[in-house]
């Protein structure tokens, strides 16, 4: 089963307040590796017109981006507010 198929089984309740935020977009532009683009299993981070864009709505709350964003520590990460975020169907 592909990752996309597994993610389809989960339920998301999207909050209007993002729980992921890039602190300073200019620092992301200076980041050499841009590892957030390649390590997030839900592909929350995308490069659009030379800037990193965060689509927090599909976040699986794994915390990978908190660890991998270590060049500038430029990510504000917290769990979504109660009742929001992902609910896993199978655990």
From TrEMBL:
GO molecular function: iron ion binding; iron-sulfur cluster binding
InterPro entries for this protein: 4Fe4S_Fe-S-bd (IPR017896), Fd_FixX (IPR012206)
Domain spans labelled 4Fe-4S ferredoxin-type: 18-50
Coiled coil location: none
Domain of life: Bacteria
UniProtKB keywords: Electron transport, Iron, Iron-sulfur, Metal-binding, Transport
Pfam families, A to Z: Fer4_10
Record's keyword annotation contains Iron: yes
Cross-referenced SUPFAM superfamilies: 4Fe-4S ferredoxins
Record's protein name: 4Fe-4S ferredoxin
């Amino acid at each position: 089963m592909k990752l996309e198929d597994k993610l389809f089984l989960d339920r998301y309740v999207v909050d209007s307040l993002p729980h992921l935020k890039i602190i300073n977009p200019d620092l992301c532009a200076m980041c050499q590796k841009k590892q957030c683009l390649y390590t997030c299993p839900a592909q929350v981070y995308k490069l659009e017109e030379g800037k990193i864009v965060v689509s927090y709505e599909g976040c699986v709350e794994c915390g990978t981006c908190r660890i991998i964003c270590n060049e500038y520590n430029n990510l504000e990460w917290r769990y979504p507010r109660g009742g929001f975020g992902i609910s896993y169907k199978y655990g």
